[in-house]
Every structure is written in structure tokens, then in C-alpha cells.
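RESIDUES AND SHAPES:
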Amino acid sequence: MSTIKSSFLVATILMLLLLDFTVDAQSSADVVFPLKRYGNIVPGTDIRKALANAWKDACTSNRSSAIVIPGGIYKVKEGIFKGPCNSPIDFQLGGTLQAPKSLQGDNWITFEHIDRLTLSGEGVFDGQGKAAWKKNDCHKHINCAQLPISLRFNFITNSIVKRITSLDSKNFHINVLGCNNLTFHNVNITAPENSPNTDGIHIGRSNRIAITMSKIATGDDCISLGDGSKQINITNVTCGPGHGISIGSLGRYTNEEPVEGVIVNNCTIINTTNGVRIKTWPASAASGTATNMQFLDIIMVNVSNPILIDQEYCPWNQCNRKIPSKIKISKVSFKNIRGSCATPVAIKLICSRHLPCDEVKVGDIDLTYNGINGPITSQCTNVRPIISGKQNPKICSSPYVVP
């Protein structure tokens, strides 16, 4: 393992130890800003003005500060919490914040340009997404109307999000953009299986992001990594229902940045359409790369596509499959993956004929299928995997069937 990967894993372990030590501790902030200081905070009312005023005071404080939201259900039409701030801030959510049922805007709660933020508490961000899901057709149409993302983290550094819940988002639950050294620990994300485009955590153009000890059940990818995702560590995550843990889709837009240094380790994936996958569009808008990706020690339970590289990702035929992907995939490892699959094709390694996959390692795979549609098998094209250990099913045992 490279020095960079080792250092990243050590740093993540040390941060987990710190999180476990502080998880039930009171805030160590020098100054506390209880929300009740900013007006008559009554459950059922909109508290966005009180939140804005508390944030202003906390952000301009020269001492570490905490904003404390008490128990109860409160409405928030929109919340934008901007830095840079003078000192660390602990945003403690004890109750439930409810989004409007209306479908206006692209965002609901946004944190941006903040260093040393802690978002904590046992509270809930309730996106009230049920009314939106029937109008969310981005899975069918490229030029669809955008719906609000519940939680945005833009350009956040050296920060932690822990013990919060995101419930029933209208669109993505959590979107991470331009962040560096941000950890999500013991986060709970939940929405029904039929809620479209409700990705649990989507990461783009960010470095050193860790997702640990979390549970994600939703209607789309539990975790999705967009372009520019680097040094990402996903550990001890339970995913399902949903579409699994995905890198991509990549190649849809021009000027995409490389993906590199992803570790998915010790996760459990239950009743999902996919397990772990890398997906790129054919007819890519531009060339790109995805490299150094490891999927290790993963349990699959009734997963339709447990292991998948799909360089012909073309949902609802929104692209031209005949033009090969320009995204180069290399240095991928699938190791010690076991459990059950819901279809007979347990492994698909479908790489680009323009840029075949390189250095794909597959070892110690033990997957079972008990259905009636034939023996368990795997398909490959434009790849020569490096095989070791147990093979169940045998790697590349069946010809690839073009959709």
C-alpha cells in the first residue's frame, strides 16, 4: 500500500477514535448561543431568522462557539450558513428541522466556506420529499427541473458531521462539493425505495472525505462519487435499499476532473439493485480517468448486481451506446466480497473498447444465487482481470450480452 494511502488510513482511524471519545461529551465551545436567545422559539414555527442571527454571532465570535437548537419540530424555509468564520463552530441540532413542502429552489440547508465546523446532535433534517418524488423525473429526462437538495456542504474544511439524520429528501440528501478533510460519522439517511434521485451522499471535486459507521437507505445510490473525488474512505457503512455504492457516473460533461484513491471497506449492502460499481457514459463528452479504487471485505445480501464496472451506462437510452467511453479505468481491486445475489449474473466487468480497463484485480469472491434462472455466472468485455483466491462464480465465465 502506498505511503499516501497508509497515511490517510491512519488519519481516519485516529479521527474515529476521537469521534468515539467525544460522541457523548458536552460541547467544549467557549461561547454557547442557545436559539431561544433570539426570540420566542415555538415548535411548529419558522425559525430561519433566529438561526441566521445566531449564526452571525457565532461566526463573528473570536472564541469557539456552539449554536444549540432544542428539541421539538421547527420549520425552516431555507438556511444558508456562510463563512469564513473567526473560530470553530459546533452546530448542535437537538430537534427536527422541516423543509417546506413546496418545490422551489435548488437548496434547502447550505453550509459553505467554513473551516472547523462540527454539525452534531441527535436531530433530524426532514426534507418532506413525498410531494416531490412524483415530479422528479431526472432519471428519465436530461433537461429535468431541479428539486432542492436537503444538505449542501460547499468548500468545507477540517470538519465533522456526526449523529444527525436526513429524512425524506426531495432530491439528494447530502451534496459535498469542493471540500477537504470532512468526515461523516454515524450518520443516518433514510427515504423509501421508490424515491427517485435521492442519493444518500454525493461527493464531487473533494479531497480526503471519510464516511464511517453510517446507515443509508434510500431510492438511489447510497453513496455516489462524481468527478474530482480523491482520497475517499468509506468504512462500516450499511447500504440498502437503494442503488449501492457507486463511482460515477463519469464522462457526461466536459472538463471533468480525475477520480483517484477510493477505498470502500467492511461495508454491508442489502437488497439493492447494485453493490459496488463504477459507471461511465458511452459517447463521453471528454476524456478522463478513474484509478486506484479498492473494494474490500464487503457483504452482499440479495443484491442484483453485486460487482459491476459499466462503461456503457446509458439510463433510459439518453446516449449513444455505439460510441465507446473515453474514461480510462485502471488499478481496481475487488477482494473478499461474499454473500448472495438476486440474479444469476453476479459480476459484470464491461469496459470500453476504446480504452480497455487495466490492472483490475479480482480475488476471494464467494457469491451465491438460489434462483431459477440458471447457474451463477459472470461477464467481461475489454478487460483481462488479474485473478486470485476463490472464484465463485468463475470470473469471465459467460460471454457479454449487449443490452
Observations:
- The domain at 79-392 is CATH 2.160.20.10 (Pectate Lyase C-like).
- The chain has one domain: 79-392.
- The mean pLDDT is 92.
